[in-house]
């Protein structure tokens, strides 16, 4: 089964968007270089960021997002972002009216069921979980293997937190990778596996 990775670009003070769901400068690093990260030609990064990010993107089989992200992106018009094969949407509501049933989007209730579905779809490839409320719930459920952050040198002050509403201590291992790009610091932390009593601190 593929690894479950929680991921997002994040401000130094731990936010993935402001109160109005705007990322502000969090994605500026994706246009700060001269190496195309995908076929669109829009996303251009430094060579260092390309060498770190492209192999990761190529390993992702399925992305798990919350219904809020799905709604504010209009479901990416039924085409998963960044060439990903499937998107699993954690939601209590059915697909929107008129939604194409052939689109590779799966609407699942509850994070445990969503991760199980995502792993089934991804096979031995990575399941990426979007950071935020859903990512925090998946971490709290003990289902995240790795936390990846692209830390951007900005302080947002308030907004949507990377770890959502997580209110318990979770220990991570020392970072596997710490890579400096243009206006971004790429970090990768394995999640420490402890007994439930130890995990809660």
Automatic annotation (TrEMBL):
It holds the Pfam family RibD_C. GO terms for biological process: riboflavin biosynthetic process. Residues 4-170 form the Bacterial bifunctional deaminase-reductase C-terminal domain. GO terms for molecular function: 5-amino-6-(5-phosphoribosylamino)uracil reductase activity. This is Dihydrofolate reductase.
């Amino acid at each position: 089964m593929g690894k479950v990775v929680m991921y997002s670009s994040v401000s130094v003070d731990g936010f993935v968007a402001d109160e109005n769901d705007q990322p502000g400068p969090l994605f500026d690093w994706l246009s700060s270089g001269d190496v195309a990260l995908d076929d669109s030609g829009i996303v251009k990064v430094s060579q260092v960021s390309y060498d770190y990010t492209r192999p990761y993107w190529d390993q992702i089989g399925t992305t798990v997002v919350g219904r809020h992200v799905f709604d504010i992106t209009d479901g990416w018009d039924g085409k998963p972002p960044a060439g990903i094969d499937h998107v699993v949407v954690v939601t209590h509501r059915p697909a929107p009216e008129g939604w194409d049933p052939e689109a590779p989007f799966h609407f699942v209730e509850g994070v445990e069921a969503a991760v199980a579905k995502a792993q089934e779809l991804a096979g031995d490839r990575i399941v990426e979980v979007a950071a935020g409320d859903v990512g925090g719930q998946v971490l709290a459920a003990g289902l995240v293997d790795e936390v990846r952050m692209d830390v951007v040198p900005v302080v947002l002050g308030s907004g949507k937190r990377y770890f959502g509403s997580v209110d318990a201590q979770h220990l991570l291992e020392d970072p596997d990778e710490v890579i400096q790009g243009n206006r971004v610091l790429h970090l990768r932390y394995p999640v420490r596996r402890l007994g439930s009593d130890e995990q809660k601190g």
